[in-house]
Amino acid sequence: MKKTIIALSVGLILAAPVVGAQTKNSTLEQRLQQMEQRLQVAETRAQNAESEIQQLKQTQHTVPATQAMPAVAVVSATPAAETKNNLAAPTLKLSGFGDLKLYGDVEFNLDAESRKGALIGDRDSDNEKWDINGRILLGFDGYRTLNNGHFAGFTAQPLADMNGGMKLDDAALFFGRESDWKIKVGRFEAFDMFPLNQDTFIQHSGDTANDLYDDGHGYIYMMKEARGRSDSGGNFLVSKQLDNWYFEMNTLVENGSSLFVDGNYHGRQLTNDKNVVYLRPVISWTQDALSLSAAMESNVVNNAYGYYDPQGNWVDQSQRTGYGAVMTWNGLKKDPDNGVVLNLNTAWLDAEQEKDFSAGINALWHRVELGYIYAHNKIEQFDQSALAGCDDGCWITDTGTYDIHTVHASYQIPNIMDMKNFNIYLGSYWSWLKEKGGEDSQDRYGARVRFKYFF
After folding, report:
1. Of 64-68, 327-331, 449-453, where does mean pLDDT reach its minimum?
2. What is the DSSP-derived secondary structure letter of residue 311?
3. Looking at residues 115-127, what average pLDDT do you find?
4. Integer Cα distance of 316 and 301 in angstroms
5. Quick check: 279 and 251 in contact, CB under 8 A?
6. How far apart are alpha carbons 156 and 140 in whole angstroms?
7. Closest CA to 396 of 411, 405, 406, 384
8. Averaged pLDDT of the chain
9. Which pLDDT value is given to residue 37?
Protein backbone atom coordinates (compact mmCIF):
# COMPACT_ATOMS: atom_id res chain seq x y z
CA MET A 1 0.00 0.00 0.00
CA LYS A 2 2.89 2.36 0.83
CA LYS A 3 4.37 1.75 -2.63
CA THR A 4 0.99 2.72 -4.20
CA ILE A 5 0.84 6.03 -2.28
CA ILE A 6 4.41 6.83 -3.28
CA ALA A 7 3.61 6.08 -6.91
CA LEU A 8 0.55 8.36 -6.78
CA SER A 9 2.65 11.15 -5.34
CA VAL A 10 5.28 10.74 -8.01
CA GLY A 11 2.57 10.82 -10.64
CA LEU A 12 1.17 14.05 -9.24
CA ILE A 13 4.59 15.64 -9.28
CA LEU A 14 5.20 14.56 -12.86
CA ALA A 15 1.75 15.70 -13.89
CA ALA A 16 2.00 19.17 -12.31
CA PRO A 17 4.22 20.88 -14.88
CA VAL A 18 2.24 19.36 -17.72
CA VAL A 19 -1.02 20.63 -16.31
CA GLY A 20 0.45 24.07 -15.78
CA ALA A 21 1.45 24.16 -19.43
CA GLN A 22 -2.05 23.75 -20.75
CA THR A 23 -3.64 26.69 -22.49
CA LYS A 24 -6.36 28.71 -20.92
CA ASN A 25 -8.79 27.30 -23.47
CA SER A 26 -8.69 23.88 -21.78
CA THR A 27 -11.61 23.27 -19.56
CA LEU A 28 -11.37 22.19 -15.95
CA GLU A 29 -13.03 18.87 -16.82
CA GLN A 30 -10.42 18.05 -19.47
CA ARG A 31 -7.61 18.76 -17.04
CA LEU A 32 -9.12 16.44 -14.41
CA GLN A 33 -9.50 13.64 -16.97
CA GLN A 34 -5.84 13.96 -17.99
CA MET A 35 -4.70 13.86 -14.37
CA GLU A 36 -6.81 10.75 -13.71
CA GLN A 37 -5.29 8.92 -16.70
CA ARG A 38 -1.76 9.69 -15.58
CA LEU A 39 -2.53 8.50 -12.04
CA GLN A 40 -3.87 5.16 -13.39
CA VAL A 41 -0.71 4.62 -15.45
CA ALA A 42 1.53 5.37 -12.46
CA GLU A 43 -0.47 3.05 -10.20
CA THR A 44 -0.20 0.20 -12.76
CA ARG A 45 3.57 0.59 -12.96
CA ALA A 46 3.90 0.49 -9.16
CA GLN A 47 1.80 -2.70 -8.93
CA ASN A 48 3.96 -4.39 -11.59
CA ALA A 49 7.17 -3.46 -9.76
CA GLU A 50 5.82 -4.79 -6.46
CA SER A 51 4.80 -8.08 -8.13
CA GLU A 52 8.31 -8.57 -9.59
CA ILE A 53 9.92 -7.97 -6.17
CA GLN A 54 7.69 -10.63 -4.56
CA GLN A 55 8.52 -13.16 -7.31
CA LEU A 56 12.25 -12.57 -6.83
CA LYS A 57 11.98 -13.16 -3.06
CA GLN A 58 10.08 -16.42 -3.61
CA THR A 59 12.74 -17.66 -6.05
CA GLN A 60 15.53 -16.96 -3.55
CA HIS A 61 13.69 -18.94 -0.84
CA THR A 62 12.85 -21.82 -3.15
CA VAL A 63 16.43 -22.58 -4.40
CA PRO A 64 18.93 -22.75 -1.52
CA ALA A 65 22.50 -21.70 -2.13
CA THR A 66 23.73 -25.26 -1.52
CA GLN A 67 21.58 -26.55 -4.37
CA ALA A 68 22.72 -23.98 -6.90
CA MET A 69 24.30 -25.58 -9.95
CA PRO A 70 27.92 -24.36 -10.18
CA ALA A 71 29.44 -23.45 -13.47
CA VAL A 72 33.15 -23.69 -14.18
CA ALA A 73 34.45 -21.45 -16.91
CA VAL A 74 36.70 -23.16 -19.44
CA VAL A 75 39.47 -21.06 -20.97
CA SER A 76 39.12 -21.22 -24.73
CA ALA A 77 42.12 -21.48 -27.04
CA THR A 78 40.04 -20.22 -30.00
CA PRO A 79 41.61 -17.26 -31.83
CA ALA A 80 40.16 -13.84 -31.10
CA ALA A 81 38.84 -13.52 -34.64
CA GLU A 82 36.74 -16.66 -34.22
CA THR A 83 35.67 -15.81 -30.67
CA LYS A 84 33.91 -12.71 -31.90
CA ASN A 85 31.65 -14.89 -34.01
CA ASN A 86 30.74 -17.23 -31.13
CA LEU A 87 27.47 -16.60 -29.36
CA ALA A 88 28.82 -17.52 -25.89
CA ALA A 89 32.06 -18.64 -24.23
CA PRO A 90 32.25 -22.43 -23.57
CA THR A 91 31.48 -23.54 -20.01
CA LEU A 92 31.62 -26.77 -18.03
CA LYS A 93 28.57 -27.31 -15.85
CA LEU A 94 28.63 -29.71 -12.91
CA SER A 95 25.60 -31.61 -11.70
CA GLY A 96 25.52 -29.77 -8.38
CA PHE A 97 25.36 -32.98 -6.33
CA GLY A 98 28.40 -32.45 -4.13
CA ASP A 99 32.03 -31.57 -4.75
CA LEU A 100 34.22 -32.97 -7.51
CA LYS A 101 37.98 -33.21 -7.04
CA LEU A 102 40.54 -33.81 -9.80
CA TYR A 103 44.15 -34.62 -8.89
CA GLY A 104 47.18 -36.56 -10.06
CA ASP A 105 50.16 -38.55 -8.80
CA VAL A 106 53.21 -38.99 -11.02
CA GLU A 107 55.76 -41.63 -9.99
CA PHE A 108 58.78 -42.72 -12.05
CA ASN A 109 61.68 -44.90 -10.87
CA LEU A 110 65.26 -45.59 -11.87
CA ASP A 111 66.08 -49.08 -10.50
CA ALA A 112 69.19 -51.19 -10.15
CA GLU A 113 68.89 -54.62 -8.51
CA SER A 114 70.16 -58.16 -8.49
CA ARG A 115 68.35 -60.93 -10.30
CA LYS A 116 66.41 -63.63 -8.48
CA GLY A 117 68.68 -66.17 -6.85
CA ALA A 118 71.86 -64.20 -7.58
CA LEU A 119 74.68 -64.15 -5.05
CA ILE A 120 75.88 -60.69 -4.17
CA GLY A 121 79.55 -61.66 -4.60
CA ASP A 122 79.20 -63.49 -7.94
CA ARG A 123 80.55 -60.84 -10.30
CA ASP A 124 81.41 -63.20 -13.15
CA SER A 125 77.79 -63.61 -14.18
CA ASP A 126 75.19 -61.08 -15.27
CA ASN A 127 73.45 -60.67 -11.92
CA GLU A 128 72.36 -57.04 -12.05
CA LYS A 129 69.46 -55.58 -13.99
CA TRP A 130 68.58 -51.97 -14.70
CA ASP A 131 65.11 -50.64 -15.22
CA ILE A 132 63.11 -47.45 -15.70
CA ASN A 133 59.48 -47.82 -14.70
CA GLY A 134 56.60 -45.82 -13.36
CA ARG A 135 53.08 -44.58 -13.88
CA ILE A 136 50.81 -41.53 -13.88
CA LEU A 137 47.66 -41.70 -11.76
CA LEU A 138 44.64 -39.49 -12.44
CA GLY A 139 42.20 -39.27 -9.56
CA PHE A 140 38.52 -38.32 -9.67
CA ASP A 141 36.76 -38.05 -6.31
CA GLY A 142 33.14 -37.06 -5.76
CA TYR A 143 31.81 -36.25 -2.31
CA ARG A 144 28.52 -34.97 -0.92
CA THR A 145 27.57 -34.39 2.70
CA LEU A 146 24.33 -33.20 4.30
CA ASN A 147 23.74 -31.10 7.38
CA ASN A 148 22.81 -34.19 9.39
CA GLY A 149 26.25 -35.75 8.77
CA HIS A 150 25.24 -38.25 6.09
CA PHE A 151 27.64 -38.48 3.17
CA ALA A 152 28.19 -40.38 -0.07
CA GLY A 153 30.90 -40.36 -2.67
CA PHE A 154 33.08 -42.24 -5.11
CA THR A 155 36.70 -42.51 -6.21
CA ALA A 156 38.19 -43.54 -9.56
CA GLN A 157 41.94 -43.69 -10.21
CA PRO A 158 43.00 -44.79 -13.71
CA LEU A 159 46.73 -45.45 -14.26
CA ALA A 160 48.90 -45.01 -17.34
CA ASP A 161 52.16 -46.93 -16.97
CA MET A 162 55.54 -46.65 -18.64
CA ASN A 163 54.88 -49.63 -20.92
CA GLY A 164 51.91 -47.95 -22.58
CA GLY A 165 49.28 -49.91 -20.69
CA MET A 166 46.22 -48.65 -18.86
CA LYS A 167 45.37 -50.00 -15.41
CA LEU A 168 43.24 -49.03 -12.44
CA ASP A 169 44.27 -48.31 -8.87
CA ASP A 170 41.06 -47.65 -6.89
CA ALA A 171 37.44 -47.62 -8.03
CA ALA A 172 34.93 -47.50 -5.18
CA LEU A 173 31.58 -46.19 -3.94
CA PHE A 174 31.17 -45.25 -0.27
CA PHE A 175 28.48 -43.79 1.98
CA GLY A 176 27.70 -43.40 5.67
CA ARG A 177 27.71 -40.88 8.50
CA GLU A 178 30.62 -38.63 9.45
CA SER A 179 32.75 -39.94 12.35
CA ASP A 180 30.32 -42.83 12.80
CA TRP A 181 29.73 -45.63 10.28
CA LYS A 182 30.72 -46.21 6.67
CA ILE A 183 30.13 -48.73 3.87
CA LYS A 184 32.55 -49.05 0.96
CA VAL A 185 32.32 -51.32 -2.07
CA GLY A 186 34.58 -51.72 -5.10
CA ARG A 187 38.32 -52.01 -5.68
CA PHE A 188 40.50 -50.58 -2.90
CA GLU A 189 42.81 -51.53 -0.03
CA ALA A 190 41.55 -52.01 3.51
CA PHE A 191 43.40 -51.24 6.78
CA ASP A 192 47.20 -51.59 6.55
CA MET A 193 48.31 -54.18 9.12
CA PHE A 194 52.02 -54.17 8.19
CA PRO A 195 53.00 -50.51 7.51
CA LEU A 196 56.53 -50.00 6.22
CA ASN A 197 56.64 -46.23 6.65
CA GLN A 198 58.51 -44.48 3.82
CA ASP A 199 59.19 -47.76 1.97
CA THR A 200 60.63 -46.69 -1.35
CA PHE A 201 62.05 -49.98 -2.59
CA ILE A 202 61.72 -53.51 -1.18
CA GLN A 203 61.69 -56.35 -3.71
CA HIS A 204 60.35 -59.61 -2.30
CA SER A 205 57.32 -61.86 -2.32
CA GLY A 206 54.49 -59.98 -0.65
CA ASP A 207 54.85 -56.50 -2.12
CA THR A 208 51.70 -56.33 -4.29
CA ALA A 209 48.01 -57.08 -3.94
CA ASN A 210 48.07 -59.94 -6.45
CA ASP A 211 50.84 -62.49 -7.10
CA LEU A 212 51.88 -62.22 -3.45
CA TYR A 213 53.35 -65.69 -3.27
CA ASP A 214 56.28 -66.37 -5.64
CA ASP A 215 56.88 -70.09 -5.30
CA GLY A 216 60.42 -71.00 -4.34
CA HIS A 217 61.54 -67.48 -3.42
CA GLY A 218 60.37 -67.18 0.18
CA TYR A 219 57.32 -65.40 1.54
CA ILE A 220 57.22 -62.33 3.77
CA TYR A 221 53.65 -62.55 5.07
CA MET A 222 52.20 -59.07 5.75
CA MET A 223 48.43 -59.57 6.30
CA LYS A 224 47.74 -58.53 2.69
CA GLU A 225 46.00 -61.61 1.32
CA ALA A 226 42.52 -60.23 2.12
CA ARG A 227 43.35 -56.51 2.09
CA GLY A 228 42.01 -55.91 -1.41
CA ARG A 229 42.80 -54.08 -4.65
CA SER A 230 42.60 -57.39 -6.46
CA ASP A 231 42.66 -57.90 -10.21
CA SER A 232 40.20 -60.80 -9.96
CA GLY A 233 37.57 -59.66 -7.44
CA GLY A 234 36.19 -56.89 -5.25
CA ASN A 235 35.76 -55.68 -1.68
CA PHE A 236 32.80 -54.93 0.56
CA LEU A 237 33.80 -53.09 3.73
CA VAL A 238 31.80 -51.98 6.79
CA SER A 239 33.48 -49.74 9.38
CA LYS A 240 32.51 -47.99 12.61
CA GLN A 241 34.19 -45.17 14.54
CA LEU A 242 33.40 -44.99 18.27
CA ASP A 243 35.42 -42.38 20.16
CA ASN A 244 39.02 -43.65 20.11
CA TRP A 245 38.02 -47.05 18.73
CA TYR A 246 37.80 -48.06 15.09
CA PHE A 247 36.20 -51.30 13.85
CA GLU A 248 36.35 -52.66 10.32
CA MET A 249 35.14 -55.78 8.53
CA ASN A 250 36.42 -56.23 4.99
CA THR A 251 35.08 -58.96 2.72
CA LEU A 252 37.09 -59.91 -0.36
CA VAL A 253 35.64 -62.14 -3.08
CA GLU A 254 38.11 -63.18 -5.78
CA ASN A 255 39.84 -65.95 -7.69
CA GLY A 256 41.91 -67.38 -4.85
CA SER A 257 44.66 -68.84 -7.04
CA SER A 258 45.56 -65.29 -8.19
CA LEU A 259 47.47 -65.08 -4.91
CA PHE A 260 50.20 -67.23 -6.45
CA VAL A 261 52.50 -66.28 -9.34
CA ASP A 262 51.42 -68.32 -12.38
CA GLY A 263 49.21 -70.40 -10.05
CA ASN A 264 52.17 -72.37 -8.67
CA TYR A 265 52.33 -73.49 -5.03
CA HIS A 266 54.88 -75.90 -3.52
CA GLY A 267 55.95 -77.09 -6.95
CA ARG A 268 52.42 -77.80 -8.19
CA GLN A 269 50.07 -76.10 -10.61
CA LEU A 270 46.85 -75.11 -8.83
CA THR A 271 43.37 -75.60 -10.25
CA ASN A 272 40.75 -72.99 -9.37
CA ASP A 273 37.30 -74.48 -8.72
CA LYS A 274 35.42 -71.48 -7.28
CA ASN A 275 36.04 -68.07 -5.80
CA VAL A 276 37.27 -67.60 -2.26
CA VAL A 277 35.56 -65.37 0.31
CA TYR A 278 37.98 -63.76 2.74
CA LEU A 279 36.77 -62.16 5.98
CA ARG A 280 39.17 -59.61 7.54
CA PRO A 281 38.06 -58.00 10.82
CA VAL A 282 40.22 -55.20 12.27
CA ILE A 283 40.06 -53.38 15.61
CA SER A 284 42.19 -50.30 16.31
CA TRP A 285 42.58 -47.92 19.25
CA THR A 286 44.18 -44.46 18.96
CA GLN A 287 45.14 -41.97 21.66
CA ASP A 288 47.16 -38.93 20.60
CA ALA A 289 50.30 -40.26 18.85
CA LEU A 290 49.84 -43.91 19.89
CA SER A 291 47.72 -46.47 18.03
CA LEU A 292 47.31 -50.22 18.57
CA SER A 293 45.68 -52.52 16.02
CA ALA A 294 44.87 -56.22 15.73
CA ALA A 295 43.29 -58.23 12.92
CA MET A 296 42.79 -61.59 11.31
CA GLU A 297 41.97 -62.79 7.80
CA SER A 298 40.56 -66.13 6.73
CA ASN A 299 39.05 -67.81 3.69
CA VAL A 300 35.67 -69.34 4.59
CA VAL A 301 35.08 -71.30 1.34
CA ASN A 302 36.27 -74.91 1.29
CA ASN A 303 37.82 -76.51 -1.80
CA ALA A 304 38.09 -73.21 -3.64
CA TYR A 305 41.36 -74.25 -5.31
CA GLY A 306 43.81 -77.12 -5.07
CA TYR A 307 45.40 -79.91 -7.14
CA TYR A 308 44.93 -83.57 -8.06
CA ASP A 309 47.44 -86.08 -6.71
CA PRO A 310 48.85 -88.94 -8.86
CA GLN A 311 45.89 -91.12 -7.81
CA GLY A 312 43.43 -88.53 -9.07
CA ASN A 313 42.30 -87.40 -5.61
CA TRP A 314 41.49 -83.75 -5.00
CA VAL A 315 43.73 -81.97 -2.45
CA ASP A 316 42.35 -78.70 -1.06
CA GLN A 317 44.91 -75.88 -0.75
CA SER A 318 42.58 -72.96 -0.05
CA GLN A 319 42.43 -73.00 3.75
CA ARG A 320 44.50 -70.01 4.89
CA THR A 321 44.12 -68.04 8.14
CA GLY A 322 46.35 -65.22 9.30
CA TYR A 323 46.70 -62.99 12.36
CA GLY A 324 48.45 -59.67 12.83
CA ALA A 325 49.16 -56.86 15.28
CA VAL A 326 50.60 -53.35 14.86
CA MET A 327 51.81 -50.64 17.22
CA THR A 328 52.42 -47.18 15.74
CA TRP A 329 53.81 -44.01 17.31
CA ASN A 330 53.22 -40.95 15.08
CA GLY A 331 55.06 -37.98 16.56
CA LEU A 332 54.48 -35.93 13.39
CA LYS A 333 50.96 -35.13 14.58
CA LYS A 334 52.25 -32.71 17.24
CA ASP A 335 55.69 -31.95 15.82
CA PRO A 336 55.74 -31.99 11.99
CA ASP A 337 59.41 -30.92 11.89
CA ASN A 338 61.05 -33.14 14.52
CA GLY A 339 58.50 -35.87 15.20
CA VAL A 340 59.32 -39.56 14.91
CA VAL A 341 57.13 -42.22 13.27
CA LEU A 342 57.73 -45.73 14.63
CA ASN A 343 56.03 -48.99 13.55
CA LEU A 344 56.23 -52.42 15.19
CA ASN A 345 54.58 -55.11 13.03
CA THR A 346 53.98 -58.82 13.44
CA ALA A 347 51.98 -61.40 11.46
CA TRP A 348 51.47 -65.17 11.46
CA LEU A 349 49.92 -67.38 8.75
CA ASP A 350 48.51 -70.89 9.13
CA ALA A 351 48.20 -72.28 5.59
CA GLU A 352 47.96 -75.69 3.98
CA GLN A 353 51.37 -77.40 4.24
CA GLU A 354 53.04 -74.14 5.31
CA LYS A 355 53.45 -71.90 8.38
CA ASP A 356 54.85 -68.35 8.08
CA PHE A 357 55.81 -65.75 10.66
CA SER A 358 56.91 -62.15 10.01
CA ALA A 359 58.00 -59.29 12.28
CA GLY A 360 59.31 -55.85 11.43
CA ILE A 361 60.36 -52.52 12.86
CA ASN A 362 60.85 -49.24 11.02
CA ALA A 363 61.33 -45.60 11.99
CA LEU A 364 61.15 -42.26 10.17
CA TRP A 365 62.86 -39.09 11.41
CA HIS A 366 63.80 -35.96 9.47
CA ARG A 367 62.83 -37.68 6.19
CA VAL A 368 65.25 -40.57 6.86
CA GLU A 369 63.68 -44.04 7.14
CA LEU A 370 65.33 -47.26 8.36
CA GLY A 371 63.69 -50.65 8.74
CA TYR A 372 64.24 -54.36 9.31
CA ILE A 373 61.96 -57.33 8.53
CA TYR A 374 62.36 -60.90 9.71
CA ALA A 375 60.40 -63.72 8.05
CA HIS A 376 60.28 -67.41 8.99
CA ASN A 377 58.90 -69.96 6.48
CA LYS A 378 58.19 -73.58 7.39
CA ILE A 379 57.46 -75.62 4.26
CA GLU A 380 55.88 -78.96 5.19
CA GLN A 381 55.45 -80.41 1.68
CA PHE A 382 57.06 -79.67 -1.70
CA ASP A 383 56.74 -81.56 -4.99
CA GLN A 384 60.26 -81.73 -6.38
CA SER A 385 59.19 -83.88 -9.31
CA ALA A 386 57.42 -80.98 -10.99
CA LEU A 387 59.25 -77.88 -9.67
CA ALA A 388 56.67 -75.79 -11.53
CA GLY A 389 57.81 -72.21 -11.78
CA CYS A 390 61.16 -72.94 -10.09
CA ASP A 391 63.48 -72.93 -13.08
CA ASP A 392 64.79 -69.37 -12.55
CA GLY A 393 67.08 -69.38 -9.55
CA CYS A 394 64.62 -70.59 -6.90
CA TRP A 395 65.75 -70.35 -3.29
CA ILE A 396 63.32 -72.94 -1.92
CA THR A 397 63.11 -76.27 -3.75
CA ASP A 398 62.38 -78.67 -0.90
CA THR A 399 60.66 -78.96 2.46
CA GLY A 400 62.39 -77.29 5.38
CA THR A 401 62.60 -74.18 7.52
CA TYR A 402 63.89 -70.93 6.02
CA ASP A 403 64.68 -67.50 7.47
CA ILE A 404 64.60 -64.26 5.46
CA HIS A 405 66.26 -61.06 6.72
CA THR A 406 65.62 -57.73 4.99
CA VAL A 407 67.12 -54.31 5.73
CA HIS A 408 65.64 -51.31 3.93
CA ALA A 409 66.26 -47.55 3.95
CA SER A 410 65.05 -44.43 2.17
CA TYR A 411 65.61 -40.69 2.16
CA GLN A 412 63.33 -37.93 0.92
CA ILE A 413 64.70 -34.87 -0.88
CA PRO A 414 61.77 -32.42 -0.63
CA ASN A 415 60.67 -29.36 -2.57
CA ILE A 416 62.66 -29.83 -5.77
CA MET A 417 63.15 -26.40 -7.41
CA ASP A 418 61.17 -24.91 -4.49
CA MET A 419 58.05 -26.88 -5.48
CA LYS A 420 56.29 -28.44 -2.49
CA ASN A 421 54.57 -30.97 -4.75
CA PHE A 422 57.81 -32.32 -6.26
CA ASN A 423 60.05 -34.70 -4.24
CA ILE A 424 62.79 -37.22 -4.91
CA TYR A 425 63.24 -40.42 -2.87
CA LEU A 426 66.42 -42.47 -2.60
CA GLY A 427 65.80 -46.07 -1.54
CA SER A 428 67.73 -49.30 -1.09
CA TYR A 429 67.32 -52.80 0.39
CA TRP A 430 69.29 -55.96 1.07
CA SER A 431 67.68 -59.37 1.68
CA TRP A 432 69.24 -62.70 2.42
CA LEU A 433 67.66 -66.14 2.88
CA LYS A 434 69.18 -69.04 4.79
CA GLU A 435 67.89 -72.54 5.38
CA LYS A 436 67.95 -73.77 8.97
CA GLY A 437 71.00 -75.98 9.38
CA GLY A 438 72.47 -74.85 6.08
CA GLU A 439 75.71 -72.96 5.55
CA ASP A 440 75.05 -70.90 2.42
CA SER A 441 72.66 -67.99 2.03
CA GLN A 442 71.03 -66.41 -0.98
CA ASP A 443 71.14 -62.62 -1.32
CA ARG A 444 69.18 -59.96 -3.13
CA TYR A 445 69.82 -56.24 -3.18
CA GLY A 446 68.68 -53.12 -4.99
CA ALA A 447 68.64 -49.31 -5.14
CA ARG A 448 66.12 -46.84 -6.52
CA VAL A 449 65.73 -43.17 -7.39
CA ARG A 450 62.05 -42.20 -7.37
CA PHE A 451 60.62 -38.99 -8.82
CA LYS A 452 57.33 -38.09 -7.13
CA TYR A 453 55.13 -35.26 -8.41
CA PHE A 454 51.63 -34.34 -7.25
CA PHE A 455 49.11 -32.09 -8.98
Report:
1. 64-68
2. T
3. 44
4. 11
5. yes
6. 5
7. 384
8. 83
9. 74
**Does residue 19 carry a pLDDT above 50?**
no
Element (H, E) at 219: none
**CA torsion through residues 160, 163, 164, 167, sign:** negative
Question: Cα-atom radius of gyration of the chain, to the nearest Å?
Answer: 35
Strand residues in 26-165 grouped as ranges (E): 71-73, 91-93, 99-114, 128-145, 150-161
**Strands annotated E in 178-232:** 181-187
Buried b (16+ CB within 10 A) or exposed e, 159-183: beeeeeeeeebbbbebebeeeeebe
pLDDT of residue 121: 33
Q: Are 285 and 245 in contact (CB under 8 A)?
A: yes
What pLDDT does residue 85 have?
A: 57
Cα(18)–Cα(34) distance, integer angstroms:
10
CA 254 vs CA 269, 303, 444: distances in Å: 18, 14, 31
Query: Any idea what the Cα angle at residue 362 is, between residues 357 and 367, rounded to 5°?
Result: 155
> Within 13 Å of residue 271, how many CA atoms lie on the same side as its CB?
11
Does 317 have pLDDT greater than 90?
A: yes
* CB-based contact 230:404 (threshold 8 Å): no
pLDDT at res. 391 = 54
